[in-house]
Amino acid sequence: MDFTRRQFIQVTGATAAGLAVSGLGFDLKPIKAHAQMLKTVSAKQTISICPYCAVGCGVIVYTSQKGDGRVIDIEGDPDHVINRGSLCSKGAALAQLSENKLRVTDPMYRAPYSKEWKTVSWDWALTEIAKRVKATRDASFVRSNAKGQVVNHTTAIASVGSAAMDNEECWIYQALMRSLGLVYLEHQARI
Amino acid sequence: MTNHWIDIKNSDCILIMGSNAAENHPISFKYVIEAQQNGTTLISVDPRFTRTSSKADLYTALRSGSDIAFLGGMIRYILDNNLYDKDYVALYTNGSFIVDQSFDFKNGLFSGYDANAHKYDKSKWAFEKDKYGVPKMDRSLKNPRCVFQLLKKHYSRYSTKLVSTITGTSEKDLLTVYKTYAATGKTGKAGTIMYAMGWTQHTVGTQNIRTMAIIQLLLGNMGVAGGGVNALRGESNVQGSTDHCLLWHIWPGYLKTPRASDTSLTVYNDKYTPKSNDPQSANWWQNYPKYSVSLLKSFFGENANQGNEFGYSWLPKADDGKVYSWLDLFDEMYNGGIKGFFAWGQNPACSGTNANKTRAALKNLDWMVNTNIFDNETGSFWRGPGMDPATVKTEVFFLPACVSVEKEGSITNSGRWMQWRYQGPKPLGNSLSDGDIILMLGEKLKELYTKDPGVFADPILNLKWDYVTGGVYDPHKVAKEINGYFLQDVTIKGKTYAKGTLVPSFAFLQSDGSTSSANWLYCNSYTEKGNLSARRGQEDAVNKIGLYPQFAWCWPVNRRIIYNRASVDAKGNPWNPDRWVIKWTGEKWVGDVPDGGWPPLETADGFKNPKTKHAFIMRKHGHAQIFGPGLNDGPFPEHYEPLECPVEKNFMNAQRINPTAPVYGGKADEWATCDPRYPYVGTTYRVVEHWQTGVMTRHQAWLLEMQPQMFVEMSVELGQLKGIKNGERVKVTSPRGEVVATAIVTKRFRPFKVGGGVVHQVGMPWHFGWEFPKSGKEESANLLTPSTGDPNTRIPETKAFMVNVVKI
Question: What is the pTM of this model?
Answer without folding.
Answer: 0.95
